[in-house]
Amino acid sequence: MRSLPIRPQPGAPTSIASAAGLTLVFVVGLVVCTAAVRGVLLRDPEVESDQTRRSLLLYRHFGPHKDEYDAVFVGSSRFYRGVDPEVFDAEVGRAGLEMRSFNFSMNGMRMPEIIARVDWMLAQKPAKLRWLIVELTTLDPAFREDNRGGQRMIAWHTPRATLDCLSVIGASTRTTAEKLAAARPHLVEFGYRFGNIGLGFEASSRWLGVAPVGPRLKHFDGYESEEEESQRKRGRRKRAGLDEQGEEEDERDDDEVREPADVAAPTFSVAGADDLPPAQERVLAAFVERVEAAGVELIVLRMPRTPRDLTARAARKRGLVPTLLAYDTRAAAPALWAAELYRDASHLNSRGAAAFSKRLAADFVTHVRAGE
């Protein structure tokens, strides 16, 4: 029996080139459709925020009230615990400057996330915003593994933020294997964000008035900072009926304050003790340029008892930031290092927050008057 030749179906690809072309068209179409859907979803600022407790409250408030504030503070829990906008505004007002400020800080926020959150804020074009007061921390994007892949991490992995993280990782002294391991979570988180994974459910739940399921991670808000981890461990000891010995184990002598345990201390290959790798300089310089291009003055701040790092030293030496208010040495602000002002090794209590906010207000007024 003679077999008949197989004829291709009409319109079917007849070569590898044709198949590749159709695949490329599909990929491009998918990217375009994904971007279009994301553009619609992100018209709601709450959808842009991750659905974690503190973040959701911040975005929910700032969106409709963005045109009411003259200054915004953005930083980690040191800012969140240490800056009281009401005290700050009152002190500035007594000096003759009427203004309103807002604290947009969250536990565990590192510099890569701070930059991404500020970029979002500037994109909202707040009408009155004149000053951004930002906590200066390390630019190395190292985060605790338990928080990877959660809503908060995914939320700030924009293309720019992801590229910044990858460039800093690539320029670090990590081995090739360590660089690949460090880069992978950032690429995954960017992929989740870019693909709108989970975003449509959150948006449709809000628009239909259905309560969202909420975080699916083991931590109460999908993200656990060092401070929250310490609180959780103390609570577990109390529930277990253990004595209180060791509850203050994180309290250290002022001169022994170290980098928070939830972030691996980065290593750098640099020419001098006070130099930053070029990749980190570029990220910081580009951030400063974007803020200034928006017509906003950037003031960078170092809190008391903040672990000393290379970023701060380089900023002081090289003038990488326009204005630096530094309280991270005992000599700069001895009164703000008093133990009775702190709830733990590096977080101010309510009394400490009031004292620091008054000092910050006085220095802020001096700075503003000097520029008039």
Can you describe this structure?
The chain is mainly alpha-helical. The chain has a domain at 69-141 and 258-370: Rossmann fold, CATH 3.40.50. It has helices at 16-41, 45-48, 53-65, 77-82, 85-94, 111-123, 151-155, 159-171, 176-194, 199-207, 226-239, 278-293, 310-318, 350-370; strands spanning 71-74, 101-103, 131-135, 297-302, 324-326. Strands 2-1-3-4-5 form a five-stranded parallel beta sheet, sandwiched between helices. Helix 5 (85-94) packs across helix 14, helix 6 (111-123) packs antiparallel against helix 8 (159-171) and helix 8 packs antiparallel against helix 12 (278-293). The chain is globular, with a radius of gyration of 24 Å. Residues 210-222 and 243-273 have low confidence and may be disordered.
Q: How many helices does DSSP assign?
A: 14
Looking across the biggest beta sheet, what order are the strands in? 2-1-3-4-5
Determine the N-to-C terminus distance. Answer: 98 Å
> What is the CATH-assigned architecture of the domain at 69-141 and 258-370?
3-Layer(aba) Sandwich
Q: Beta-strand percentage?
A: 5-15%
Strand element count: 5
Give the gist of this structure.
The protein is mainly α.
Strand-helix topology:
Elements lengths: L15 H26 L3 H4 L4 H13 L5 E4 L2 H6 L2 H10 L6 E3 L7 H13 L7 E5 L15 H5 L3 H13 L4 H19 L4 H9 L18 H14 L38 H16 L3 E6 L7 H9 L5 E3 L23 H21 L2
Parallel strand pairs: 1-2, 1-3, 3-4, 4-5
